[in-house]
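In this section we walk through a basic example: taking a raw amino acid sequence and producing a predicted 3D structure, encoded as discrete structure tokens. The instruction is simple. Fold the sequence below.
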Amino acid sequence: MTTTQTGKTGVALVIGAGDATGGAIARRFARAGMVACVTRRNADKLEPLLAQIRAEGGIAHGFGSDARDEDAVVALVEQIETTIGPIEVLVFNIGANAPSSILQETTRRYTKIWEMACLAGFLTGREVARRMVARAGEGPKGSIIFTGATASVRGSARFAAFAGAKHALRALAQSMARELGPLGIHVAHVIIDGAIDTAFIRDNFPERYALKDHDGILNPDHIADQYWMLHRQPRDAWTHELDLRPWIEKF
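The resulting token sequence is shown next.
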């Protein structure tokens, strides 16, 4: 088990532990001996992931939580830190990828996408950072990793809301890294540039999904390995931004 200076088992908190990338990240950290704490707005949807982690010998806890709700985020972090253990790594993995023409976009929808993809990252990042900074001792105090997308660096047609939110999340990660790095917290931003092996891609983009046999779409387990690598980096060689894409993807 991964333990902290307090002697307690370290916790990996994954906000937005879906069926693909988020779930794979949670499983990867659990296999390394960390306690996986995973969230979705609907806690029932976490049951298959929790069962899989436990079947593989890991420890996992699931929470139904709205990461856009400040009070809910504060309560979640307090509950985990008090009853389970210190949060050693936070992974913010909420997507909110919903295309729409700028001509039909609404204020309500635009705001909701920003709340999910950016505001929620601020709230969870702030609360976990407060806990990490307060820990006694010198040296690394934890990792905060934000999941980005192609839209983090390039706004495409019909993705104004998503690109705006992801650009803002990237800026948040940069600002946090510059402030918190000297305090022992590794803040990283991962740009996922390409289709991921998910049921959504399989059902809606069969031609793209067919590229799976040629390593043409991202394997969630391989993405998760890179998150684990980031967390384990020595602080004399920290990576802030990492981009992951299939070899056939243009950039």
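Looking at the output, two observations stand out. The first strand starts at residue 11 and ends at 15. The two ends are 39 Å apart (CA to CA). In the next section we compare this with other chains.
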